[in-house]
Amino acid sequence: MTNTSNPIVLVGAGIGGLFAGLCLQRKNTDFLILEKADKLADVGAGIQIGANGARLIHELGLTEEFEKYALAPLYGLMMDGISGRQICTYPLSAFAQEEHSFPHYQILRSDLQRILVDALQARAPEKLHLAAEVLDIKQEQGFVQLKTRDGRIFQGKAVVGCDGIHSTVRKQCFDETDPKFTNCIAWRALVPTSELEMDYPMVPRIWIGPGRHLVQYPVSSGKSINLVACVESSRAQHERWQGSSSVEELNQSFSTGCTAVQDLVSKADQALSWGLYERPVLESWTKGCITLLGDAAHAMLPSMAQGAVMAMEDAYQLAESIAALSDLENALKDYESKRFKRCRKTQVVARKNMAFFHQKGALNKVSAKALNLAGAQSEKLIGRRYGWLYGYEGVT
Length: 396
Ligand SMILES: Cc1cc2nc3c(=O)[nH]c(=O)nc-3n(C[C@H](O)[C@H](O)[C@H](O)COP(=O)(O)OP(=O)(O)OC[C@H]3O[C@@H](n4cnc5c(N)ncnc54)[C@H](O)[C@@H]3O)c2cc1C
What we know:
The chain is α/β, with parallel strands linked by helices. It has a single domain, classed as FAD/NAD(P)-binding domain (3-Layer(bba) Sandwich). The protein has 14 helices and 18 strands. It has helices at about 15-25, 50-60, 65, 95-100, 110-125, 170-175, 245-255, 260-265, 295-300, 305-325, 330-355, 360-375, 380-385, 385-390; strands at about 10, 30-35, 45-50, 75-80, 85-90, 105-110, 130, 135-140, 145-150, 155, 160, 180-190, 205-210, 210-220, 225-230, 270-280, 285, 290. Strands 5-4-13-14-15-12-16 form a seven-stranded mixed sheet. The chain has a six-stranded mixed sheet with strand order 7-2-1-11-18-17. Strands 8-9-10 form a three-stranded antiparallel sheet. The longest helix is centred in the last third of the chain and has 30 residues, at about 330-355. It is globular. The two termini are about 35 Å apart. The structure holds flavin-adenine dinucleotide (FAD). The site of flavin-adenine dinucleotide (FAD) has 33 residues, from helix 1, strand 3, strand 12, helix 9 and helix 10.
């Protein structure tokens, strides 16, 4: 037996697991994290953290550190990816600050991960165990036992599967089915800002169009522009980053796009591709003292930029429920019941947003025209539509 105390065992040290560790530490709840990788290294790609995530970063006292690396652009431009014309402006930090009191951040994933790991090491040293891939979980009366690939046994009073879309905890304890390919793949690339020919490259843009869209926003103090390109494809691809060979395919996918879009993708000398998968939100993701969090519970399309933020909200609620209720099983049920509807709704909205970006169906085309006609009001229209998401104060 490796550990002698009775902690909450978090399986996985992605954004969800790291955030959960920090939230539990804040509530003086004992925990440990088991991560299968032998070192934590994230890809050099960007991630957006909406105002609902910025609020939680503030609650954890990480805003100052975060703002050394994150940018908070005031607004973005929605563009027609084929004609190159502007459709409307969409709300980012100007609206978010005014309506929700927090900004909308854009940051490199590796910076976000480093901030979380450093805070964890400083506040709760020796809680993170690397090279600890969990293979087996057994729930006994009053405790849970986990076995790792190298034969170590860990014990705790509860297990939280924060182990991502291919979650072992989900498979072993809840649902044996595999995640579903959404017929969409995503490419990620970083382009040096200085190489771009467009005006105001630092202003984030979403280029929408039939069957594909491209998101651009600045990271690394504006030195690079992060690209996320989503393209429909019937060819299933692994849900993991794949090597640089996809640059030609990326260029090919946007060959019918406007000049600005073609210029953007042509400046990527390396692109990583990723098959987009979804997990249906389970009717229940808690059994006794085992529960799920983040992508393991409710993986969603990236078209609302909310998967990681939902994992952060889950983490915060989990720690709140455990601290508030003395019976652990009740606490885990309470956590799930407070997260279920919101995560399911966000997953559905992400799917609808993908259809809008890809201009599927007459209604979506009409909506784009309506936003164009709304002119300066479009930011408020979009912002208010998603007030329930970005202005959420439920967990705090
Ligand atoms: C193209 C793209 C763009 C995105 N953009 C955004 C965005 O802008 N904003 C946003 O909020 N979200 C975004 N997302 C979603 C976001 O990346 C995910 O929702 C988020 O990373 C999920 O975090 P997680 O901690 O649940 O899982 P993961 O990040 O997948 O972490 C799981 C961890 O568990 C470990 N693990 C797995 N199995 C085991 C095991 N058996 N034992 C121990 N450890 C294990 C893994 O090694 C990993 O470290 C995007 C996703 C994609 C694909």
